[in-house]
Design brief:
Largest sheet: none
Strand content: under 5%
Order of helices and strands: HHHHHHHHHHHHH
Distance between the termini: 31 Å
Helix content: 55-70%
Shape: elongated
Radius of gyration: 19 Å
Structural class: mainly alpha
């Protein structure tokens, strides 16, 4: 995950999580203050199109596709909903998009024009669940994708993506468990992380990354 200098909310969240128990304190001390990279006020439309382009692809490959997509429209900026909704199929496919992604992106553009995908200004007044319900109605957009939009584009601080492998693996490593918690179980556990569940998720991603390098050393025997 990308990082940025911590703001006051991130610092408060780091202190809050560190105070939960010895395991959280160890993780926060090891990682340092939260430095989650957000794109505050990012437009949901653009974030969703980018998310679709990245699906099942390495980041560099997706970035190349998006670069070709932007270059194929006038002014070489990010194409507008009007442009994508009426774009020729051949033009979009030539950028490297699969037919399924072409259909998904056109659907996002059409839904934006219809008002289903709100602007960042309107989204600011909507709850997380309202946005998830509305946006997951779009073809090719699942709950995880909307949760990433909420955390990284809209700057929401209390979103817990319980289906995310890295978050569940981070919790398993942090607590030295024999297996990952099920999503429903993690949702219950995560109640104690309110109102900073997005920041908790960020720390658990860090725990998973540290675990890959053998740098997250448990100080107790595995829980049976």
């Amino acid at each position: 995950m990308q990082t940025a200098p911590p703001d006051n909310t991130d610092i408060a969240a780091s202190r809050f999580l560190a105070g939960l128990d010895a395991d959280w304190q160890r993780l926060v001390t090891l990682v340092g203050p939260c430095a989650i990279q957000r794109r505050e006020q990012g437009e949901p439309y653009e974030a969703l199109v980018r998310a679709v382009a990245h699906q099942q692809l390495h980041g560099n490959a997706a970035a190349a596709i998006l670069a070709r997509l932007m270059a194929s429209f006038p002014h070489h900026g990010f194409p507008s909903p009007e442009q994508l909704a009426t774009a020729d199929e051949t033009q979009l496919r030539s950028c490297g998009l699969s037919m399924a992604k072409v259909n998904a992106i056109r659907g996002i553009a059409a839904a934006t024009l219809a008002g289903t995908v709100p602007s960042a200004r309107l989204a600011a007044g909507m709850s997380e669940e309202e946005l998830i319900t509305r946006l997951t109605s779009l073809k090719g957009i699942g709950r995880w994708t909307v949760e990433m939009l909420l955390i990284f584009s809209l700057g929401r601080n209390d979103v817990l993506p319980v289906d995310d492998f890295g978050v569940r693996e981070g919790w398993r490593l942090l607590k030295n468990l024999p297996e990952q918690p099920k999503p429903k179980a993690l949702a219950v556990i995560g109640e104690q992380w309110k109102p900073y569940r997005s920041i908790a998720a960020w720390y658990l991603w860090q725990a998973a990354n540290l675990g890959k390098r053998g740098a997250l050393m448990p100080d107790k025997e595995p829980v049976e």
